[in-house]
């Protein structure tokens, strides 16, 4: 029970209570909508390629937008930027619901809307995450980052389940409208946060947005720990983390299941991710995080290989759960190391690049796997990717001592 102290400390302030409540509300709605839109896209096209295209449209803008989004979040009011992105997400959901309800929806319209949503989320990620260090002490930062992921994965566990039931019972529109209401509620609640000026705005502009974005890239590339860690995370993202973005084709094609099966797999991923996040939050220390960040990638590769290689649905659910736990441990470990080791005036830019990895890498992988499935099916390309990712893990293990020295001290470089 002593390990719960870090979590209690993080949740002891009014700011963190509001922040995490808003996060849980909005992300639950977003996962409900994701189940609905994935199923809607599958009904419209019955194509794994189109599912991959939609994923790329949502996550792909991060490649171009994220470096600039990080620079913007370091020089504007981060709280206001967060609220603006939440309102855009609510508008996206309302538009999608109206088009579907009126029968005007087309897969091309969905792709355009996903580009809008992905661009908005690219700005939201660094803005929101940059607020966290200003709400807790440095000692409580690992727990705060882990709790943020816990909220995400709690939403990921309950959102698809609720969304799947709603889609199976009433259709996709109610699930999409629920997300609209969730983001409107979060937009009205976030302004209640009381944050100091330094937290809300990183620094006054020192040059153009392009120059500051390039400074962020150079900062990461020259860091002895961040550079190798980003490269490894990008490899895992492209080859492994893309698979959960293609769940409808796997669930329908390999296991012959419908919306209920999709909800089951998604909820298994989310529940296990919640367990993995709880483990990291209760752990509450920096030492050993590099080892967890790298080792969880190997577990993720093996679990993903098991998921795509079987036709037994119960075993696939177990593998999906292992994927969820490993993904969360990997993500929290990397993000905690970054937020601890980054200078305060650079944190928005570093986190935006991390957001680019977590969003753009799976998008590129999903698009590649979707295209490959048209020729070679779903299983063979992913199994090859799992083997390559396992090899990248072995290479990263050889650099672990070097990375740990640079990142686990929690010292921001000059």
UniProtKB/TrEMBL annotation:
Domain of life of the source: Bacteria
Record-linked Gene3D superfamilies: MFS general substrate transporter like domains
UniProt entry keywords in alphabetical sequence: Cell membrane, Membrane, Transmembrane, Transmembrane helix, Transport
CDD domains hit by this protein: MFS_MefA_like
Chief location category: membrane
Subcellular location as annotated: Cell membrane
GO cellular component terms listed in the entry, alphabetical order: plasma membrane
Regions crossing the membrane: 48-69, 81-107, 162-186, 229-255, 261-282, 289-309, 315-338, 350-372, 378-397
Ranges in coiled-coil conformation: none
Lipid bilayer topology: Multi-pass membrane protein
Keyword Nucleus among UniProt keywords: no
Name of the protein in its database record: MFS transporter
Species of provenance: Limobrevibacterium gyesilva
Biological classification of the source: Bacteria, Pseudomonadati, Pseudomonadota, Alphaproteobacteria, Acetobacterales
């Amino acid at each position: 029970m002593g390990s719960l102290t870090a979590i209690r400390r993080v949740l002891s302030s009014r700011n963190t209570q509001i922040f995490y409540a808003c996060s849980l509300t909005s992300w639950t709605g977003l996962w409900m909508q994701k189940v609905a839109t994935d199923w809607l896209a599958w009904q419209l096209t019955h194509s794994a390629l189109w599912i991959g295209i939609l994923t790329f449209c949502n996550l792909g803008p991060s490649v171009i937008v994220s470096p600039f989004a990080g620079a913007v979040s370091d020089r504007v009011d981060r709280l206001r930027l967060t609220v603006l992105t939440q309102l855009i997400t609510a508008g996206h959901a309302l538009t999608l619901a109206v088009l579907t309800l009126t029968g005007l929806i087309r897969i091309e319209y969905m792709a355009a809307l996903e580009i809008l949503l992905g661009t908005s989320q690219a700005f939201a990620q660094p803005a929101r995450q940059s607020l966290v260090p200003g709400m807790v002490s440095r000692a409580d930062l690992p727990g705060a980052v882990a709790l943020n992921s816990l909220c995400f994965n709690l939403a990921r566990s309950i959102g698809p389940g609720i969304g799947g039931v709603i889609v199976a019972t009433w259709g996709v529109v109610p699930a999409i409208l629920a997300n609209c209401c969730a983001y409107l509620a979060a937009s009205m609640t976030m302004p209640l946060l009381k944050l100091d000026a330094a937290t809300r705005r990183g620094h006054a502009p020192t040059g153009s947005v392009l120059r500051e974005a390039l400074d962020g890239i150079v900062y990461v590339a020259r860091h002895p720990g961040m550079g190798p860690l980003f490269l490894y995370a990008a490899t895992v993202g492209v080859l492994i983390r893309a698979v959960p973005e293609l769940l409808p084709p796997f669930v329908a094609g390999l296991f012959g299941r419908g919306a209920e099966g999709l909800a089951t797999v998604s909820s298994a991923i989310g529940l296990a991710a919640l367990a993995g996040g709880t483990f990291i939050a209760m752990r509450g220390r920096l030492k050993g995080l590099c080892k967890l960040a790298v080792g969880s990638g190997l577990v993720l590769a093996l679990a993903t290989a098991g998921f795509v290689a079987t036709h037994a649905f119960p075993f696939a659910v177990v593998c999906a759960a292992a994927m969820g736990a490993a993904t969360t441990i990997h993500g929290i470990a990397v993000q905690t190391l970054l937020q601890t080791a980054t200078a305060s005036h650079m944190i928005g830019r570093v986190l935006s690049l991390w957001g680019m990895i977590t969003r753009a890498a799976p998008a590129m992988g999903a698009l590649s796997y979707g295209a490959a499935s048209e020729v070679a099916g779903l299983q063979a390309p992913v199994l090859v990717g799992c083997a390559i990712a396992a090899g990248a893990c072995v290479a990263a293990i050889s650099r672990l001592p070097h990375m740990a020295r640079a990142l686990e001290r929690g010292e921001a470089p000059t």
